[in-house]
Design a protein that fits this description.
Length: 454
């Protein structure tokens, strides 16, 4: 038995919105055998644009029952049926959430008439309920009201049952089928193409624009994990509604997937990637010339649009490096903002400051040592290669770190002999480096020194 369901709501996600109208038609596989329909008082005001769309106003639902009052009736109608709806995950997420608040745990098999329509009537320009009904000569009355839309969906479902010569409905209802969990416009063929290897995946909207970039150790498993559960929140529901396709780039290792994800998020700036956008190291080493002509080094909090010479996770990390440079190259702690009081210079007292702070040393001589210090810091940054497994047994992956920045990564034949870094560069795809990527590579190198080649 099938329960064909349509609801009208006050908004697009269950956790902050209520149901205003519901219709349930029980279908025995041949025809509708029972109908249930009622307005519901959502307990909150209906937005004006929703009222304009559905015709349902606050006045109309003022004396209607609350969802809790009809929850038992609804659960007993649909609880042991196959839940059928046009864009089924929307209606299902609302009813599951509000039934749970009333003490009922909805666990149904689901069928989506959008997805079935794409399979059984391929090639249509649109699979919205209105366009499908028009194309298939199904009369759709009382549009955007639960009763009218449910009745049209029931007629569509009868037609789908009749025309399903390849058994798509039975396949979707099979125990091993997870297809009904997919967003309505995402093709199962896109999922089937995903390998079980590391890589980066791209969710795209109807226009083909990338709306989310993710990394994975197992591409197929990770992509499918986005569609498990029934989170009723607005963000997730909007995200799933906009997914129309998925593509991928296979990587040899998890680390390469991490790097490529970071690069692609910065390049594409997808609307649904938030955490990676916020990541930046907090402090930087800056250089400027003061009014007396002395070069000044300072560790300061990074500001938008600034270009530090080097970046650090913490003020302490940057400060310790700057202190070591002042002592190694006889720089003044006051001119480097390590000492900020008006007392006698600690560098003079410790015999490494040559008096630039007092004007006893000229700016030209002092500035030359500042430049030496920066060059020393640059050359002290590591250059190495990380060699690891490739995408196939015939190749190996390589990530090149040059003077503390990731130059790029790529793949070499397994038997390729590496003579020097410059010969490898021509075989790699350069990538823009940032603090996040650099730290990932450095941490990986420290954890797996056997993969490092100098």
């Amino acid at each position: 038995m099938y329960a064909i369901v349509d609801i009208e709501t006050t908004g697009g996600h269950a956790s902050a919105n209520g149901i205003t109208d519901i219709a349930i038609l029980l279908h025995d596989g041949k025809s509708v055998v029972h109908q249930y329909e009622t307005l519901i008082n959502p307990g909150i005001s209906i937005p004006a644009y929703i009222s304009a769309l559905t015709g349902i106003s606050d006045e109309m639902v003022k004396n209607a029952p609350s969802f809790r009052e009809v929850a038992a009736d609804i659960y007993h109608l649909i609880g042991d049926k196959v839940f059928v709806a046009h864009n089924v995950n929307f209606d299902y997420s609302f009813l599951k959430y509000h039934l749970s608040l009333a003490g009922f745990n909805l666990q149904c098999k689901k069928l989506c008439t959008v997805r079935l329509g794409r399979k059984i009537f391929p090639g249509f320009s649109s699979y919205s309920l209105g366009k499908l009904c028009s194309r298939l000569n199904i009369v759709l009355e009382n549009r955007h009201r639960a009763g009218g839309d449910a009745l049209a969906t029931a007629k569509l479902f009868s037609m789908l049952l009749e025309k399903d010569e390849d058994g798509h409905i039975l396949q979707l209802l099979g125990r091993s089928s997870a297809e009904q969990r997919l967003p309505p416009y995402l093709q199962k063929e896109d999922i089937d193409k995903l390998p079980l290897s590391p890589g980066v995946y791209y969710f795209k909207n109807q226009k083909g624009d990338v709306i989310y970039v993710g990394k994975a150790i197992n591409l197929r498993k990770r992509v499918l994990s986005h569609f498990t559960g029934n989170n009723p929140g607005r963000q997730r529901q909007e995200f799933l509604k906009n997914i129309h396709s998925v593509s991928f780039t296979e990587c040899g290792t998890e680390l390469m997937a991490f790097i490529l994800e970071a690069v692609e998020i910065k390049r594409i700036w997808p609307s649904n990637n938030r955490a990676m956008k916020r990541f930046e190291q907090s402090f930087g080493l800056y250089l400027y010339e003061d009014q007396r002509g002395y070069l000044r080094l300072i560790i300061d909090k990074k500001k938008k649009g600034s270009c530090p010479l080097f970046s650090f996770n913490s003020l302490l990390e940057g400060r310790n490096i700057l202190i070591s440079l002042t002592k190694k190259f006889d720089l003044c702690p006051k001119l480097c903002f390590i000492q900020r009081n008006n007392e006698c210079c600690n560098g003079i007292l410790s015999n490494y400051c040559r008096g630039a702070c007092n004007g006893d040393e000229g700016s030209a001589e002092y500035n030359a040592r500042v430049r030496q210090a920066l060059e020393d810091l640059k050359t002290a940054l590591p250059s190495f290669m990380l060699l690891d497994k490739g995408r196939t047994v015939e190749e190996q992956s390589i990530i090149l770190m040059e003077q503390g920045n990731v130059y790029g990564m790529g793949y070499l034949p397994r038997n390729y002999t590496i003579s020097d870094i410059n010969s490898v560069k021509t075989l790699l795809h350069p990538h823009p480096s940032n603090d996040y990527i650099r730290n990932m590579v450095l941490n990986h190198a420290s954890r797996f020194p056997e993969k490092v080649r100098l």
